[in-house]
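Backbone-to-sequence.
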């Protein structure tokens, strides 16, 4: 028996704060329990009433003669602690605290919540809430609606968790309207005890749950979420609406990576790596639930559009372009059979446009042919009703063919509003239907994304031969002095310890002998300013390349000092760095990329890859991932940037060593996994060429946190 069974599988429920007063939450919850035909005993608790809802009421939960498995607490916040204490003495194992007035209200409420949780833990109880709208278990053996929602959703296979009570009500109403069907619903409120991760684990092997949906405002334990969702999403789709995407992160960053890693970068990276489907709105979530519950999973990405109107079909095709779907090519045999059914004005190419005169028979017969074509994986039907055709009959025919066809079918009905209310009532188990073409195509895209995740190899985490002890010693020496940026020499030593290819370099004081330094390297060289506070060296004239001789180097130094003085940062310079120039690769082909890491306080190390150079924060062509990292993750990072074709080679340029970039990402992941104390780092630029021997990290900054 799972500890959360006390909440979702009770045999008896006490409603503490039940009342006959119309419009009260206590009355609504009691009504819902009776109306949903809870399969167990119900005990109203209210010292001011002898009977409520024609049922004997008790002054206290301790007065109930029977055992009580679950207590729903709907009393003012000041009375919650005593009610919880009484439940503990009674032996109640599950609590749902509807009452507000806790952590969400400020310091005093937080103290009240802490005191409540001390009692809960002392008695070994489990709790959902406080500040929530309740829970629901629609499975046949329980049938418990302990919410104050006016909606009564049918039983089904969707399990849903919401951090927002108000959105929870809206979702229950939408699910009821579309007759999608729930297995479980939980409004977790403040998540004082039972969390989203607890519910994920609870629903993982639940036989009634086929789809898990979550509305999240924050991650409680992101690393636990990663572990659970990566495992569960291989068998059950997890759909997440994650709010809080509008503002950039408030990180006080001193690196490119830190500045680019807004507060949603970590959330988005984690969700992508877990196979979780992220949607941006409740409407999009409902659309996706219609898809997963109303049709079969696609076996490929080849899309055929069947329509009676050209404009919406063009919109659907445009929506599919570049989003993982490919327009299917119908076989000549299929096109000949379709042509025989349609008028001469119709088009039998994909999109198949049957023109406005097409009726139920046309949709039925042509869809049968489309689904029988081996080159089609997904069909989207679009129907714009003329006055003489009944839209519901078209939907019935499409549904009948879809059920027999064994392929993914999504329907678009651009009809008068009343039909959307009638379809769930008058068309038995209809195919998923949407108002607009883009909505249906978006669902097809997301379902195909989930298919690819399930087919995706798990990947491996290679371990490179490195000098971990040396790297830890370098970082620890900086930590004990309060943290800050590593010196150029320590940075290079750290990179060398983990096998990153670097350039030869010599650091001299601001007034040091740069010519002598250059002679140790050999010309041509690059001159750079060194300074913890100087992040964007190029912006202040702190980088001069292609210096061919000693005279040019001396001149470059004078020019740089003048530029730094004009920019007001000469006083921030702690030295000058003389570096070797990196040779261009074969045919002069090379690209600049960036590797970075920022340590997120909740998610841990957040790795970044993208196109590098001085415009990295302008172009923002970067992707993020969280640990743990596999070789598959590294491949997807490299291929996830917009400029990936440049790495493959364009206009006759050769391909750079992409496999080496993937290795550098994995080496970076190993570094931040094995060496504690690195707060953020940038390798920018990393020069990559077709030949591995010419690939180099030419600039690196590593900031260490204090002890």
């Amino acid at each position: 028996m799972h500890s959360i069974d006390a909440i979702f599988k009770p045999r008896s429920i006490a409603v503490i704060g039940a009342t006959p007063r119309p419009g009260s939450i206590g009355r609504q919850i009691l009504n819902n329990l009776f109306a949903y035909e809870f399969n167990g005993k119900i005990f109203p608790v209210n010292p001011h009433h002898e009977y409520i809802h024609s049922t004997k009421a008790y002054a206290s939960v301790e007065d109930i003669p029977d055992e009580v498995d679950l207590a729903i607490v709907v009393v003012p916040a000041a009375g919650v602690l005593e009610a919880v204490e009484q439940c503990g003495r009674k032996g109640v194992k599950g609590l749902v605290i509807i009452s507000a007035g806790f952590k969400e209200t400020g310091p005093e409420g937080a103290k009240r919540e802490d005191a409540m949780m001390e009692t809960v833990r002392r008695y070994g109880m489990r709790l959902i809430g406080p500040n929530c709208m309740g829970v629901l278990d629609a499975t046949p053996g329980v049938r418990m609606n302990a919410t104050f929602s006016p909606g009564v959703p049918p039983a089904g296979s969707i399990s849903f968790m919401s951090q927002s009570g108000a959105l929870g009500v809206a979702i229950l109403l939408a699910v009821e309207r579309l007759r999608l069907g729930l297995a479980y619903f939980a409004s977790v409120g403040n998540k004082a005890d039972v969390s989203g991760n607890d519910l994920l684990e609870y629903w993982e092997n639940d036989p009634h749950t086929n789809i898990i949906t979550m509305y999240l405002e924050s991650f409680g334990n992101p690393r636990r979420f990663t572990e659970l969702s990566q495992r569960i999403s291989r068998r059950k789709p997890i759909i997440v609406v994650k709010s809080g995407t509008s503002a950039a992160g408030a990180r006080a960053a001193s690196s490119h990576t830190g500045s680019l890693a807004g507060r949603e970068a970590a959330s988005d990276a984690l969700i992508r790596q877990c196979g979780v489907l992220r949607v941006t709105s409740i409407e999009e979530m409902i659309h996706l639930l219609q898809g997963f519950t109303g049709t079969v999973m696609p076996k490929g990405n080849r899309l055929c559009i069947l329509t009676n109107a050209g404009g919406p079909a063009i919109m659907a095709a445009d929506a599919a372009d570049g989003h993982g779907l490919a327009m299917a090519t119908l076989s000549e045999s299929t096109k000949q059979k379709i042509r025989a059914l349609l008028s001469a004005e119709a088009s039998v190419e994909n999109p198949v446009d049957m023109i406005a005169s097409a009726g139920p028979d046309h949709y039925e017969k042509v869809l049968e042919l489309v689904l029988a074509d081996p080159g089609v994986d997904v069909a989207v039907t679009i129907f714009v009703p003329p006055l003489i055709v009944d839209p519901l009959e078209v939907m019935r025919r499409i549904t009948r063919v879809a059920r027999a066809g064994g392929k993914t079918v999504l329907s678009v009905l651009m009809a008068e509003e009343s039909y959307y209310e009638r379809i769930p009532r008058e068309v038995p188990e209809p195919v998923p239907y949407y108002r607009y073409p883009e909505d249906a195509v978006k669902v097809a895209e997301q379902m195909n994304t989930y298919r690819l995740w399930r087919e995706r190899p798990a990947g491996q985490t290679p371990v490179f031969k490195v000098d971990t002890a040396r790297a830890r010693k370098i970082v620890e020496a900086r930590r004990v002095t309060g943290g800050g940026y590593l010196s150029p020499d320590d940075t290079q030593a750290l990179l060398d310890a983990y096998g990153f290819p670097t350039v030869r370099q010599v650091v001299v004081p601001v007034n040091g002998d740069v010519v002598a330094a250059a002679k140790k390297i050999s010309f041509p060289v690059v001159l750079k300013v060194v300074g913890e506070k100087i992040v964007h060296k190029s912006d202040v004239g702190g980088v001069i390349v292609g210096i061919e001789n000693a005279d040019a180097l001396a001149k470059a130094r004078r020019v740089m000092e003048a530029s730094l003085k004009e920019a007001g940062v000469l006083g921030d310079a702690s030295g000058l760095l003389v570096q070797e120039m990196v040779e261009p690769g074969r045919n002069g082909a090379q690209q600049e990329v960036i590797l970075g890491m920022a340590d997120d306080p909740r998610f841990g190390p957040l790795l970044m890859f993208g196109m590098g150079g001085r415009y990295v924060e302008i172009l923002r062509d970067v992707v993020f991932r969280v640990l743990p990292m596999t070789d598959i993750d590294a491949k997807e990072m490299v291929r996830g940037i917009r400029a990936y074709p440049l790495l493959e080679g364009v206009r006759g340029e050769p391909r750079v060593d992409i496999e080496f970039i993937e290795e550098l990402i994995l080496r970076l992941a190993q570094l931040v996994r094995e060496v504690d104390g690195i707060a953020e780092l940038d390798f920018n630029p990393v020069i990559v060429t077709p030949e591995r021997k010419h690939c180099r990290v030419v600039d690196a900054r590593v900031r260490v946190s204090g002890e």
